[in-house]
C-alpha cells in the first residue's frame, strides 16, 4: 500500500500558521489592498497626489507613506480620512478563522 502524503489537503493558510507568519502576511495583504484601492479611486476621480495631500491637509511625503504598500504603520484614522476625501467609507469586517 502506498504511503499517504501527510500534507495532502492542508491549506496555504495552515502552512503560514505553522511557520508563524500568518498574521504578518495577512496584515501585509490588507495594507497592499488598501493602498491599491486608494490609488485606484484617486485615478478614477483624476486626483493627483499633490491634490490629495492638500485635501487631506498633509504633506506629499506623508501621502506617499500612506500609499506605500510596504509601509504598515498607517492608522485607521488616517485610512478613514483618506477614504472620506475620496467620497468613500472604510469598512472593517471581522470573520471567523
Architecture overview:
It is a single chain. The chain has five helices and no strands. Helix 3 packs across helix 4. The protein is mainly α and 97 residues long. It has a domain of 51 residues: 434 Repressor (Amino-terminal Domain).
Secondary structure elements and pairings:
Layout: H1 12-19, H2 22-44, H3 49-56, H4 60-67, H5 76-85
Helix pairs in contact: 3-4
Instruction: Write down the secondary-structure element order.
Output: HHHHH
What is the strand tally?
0
Radius of gyration: 19 Å
Gross morphology: elongated
* CATH fold description of the domain at 40-90: 434 Repressor (Amino-terminal Domain)
Report the structural category. mainly alpha
Strand content: under 5%
Key descriptive features of the protein:
single chain; 97 residues; mainly alpha; 434 Repressor (Amino-terminal Domain); 5 helices; elongated
Characterize this entry briefly.
With 97 residues, the chain is mostly helical. It is 59% helix and 0% strand. It has a domain at 40-90: Orthogonal Bundle (434 Repressor (Amino-terminal Domain)).
Amino acid at each position: 500500500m502506498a504511503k499517504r502524503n501527510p500534507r495532502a489537503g492542508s491549506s496555504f493558510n495552515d502552512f503560514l500558521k505553522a511557520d508563524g507568519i500568518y498574521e504578518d502576511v495577512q496584515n501585509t495583504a490588507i495594507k497592499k489592498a488598501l493602498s491599491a484601492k486608494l490609488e485606484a479611486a484617486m485615478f478614477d476621480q483624476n486626483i493627483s497626489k499633490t491634490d490629495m495631500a492638500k485635501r487631506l491637509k498633509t504633506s506629499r511625503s506623508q501621502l506617499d507613506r500612506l500609499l506605500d504598500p510596504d509601509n504598515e504603520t498607517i492608522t485607521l484614522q488616517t485610512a478613514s480620512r483618506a477614504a472620506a476625501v475620496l467620497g468613500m467609507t472604510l469598512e472593517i469586517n471581522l470573520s471567523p478563522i
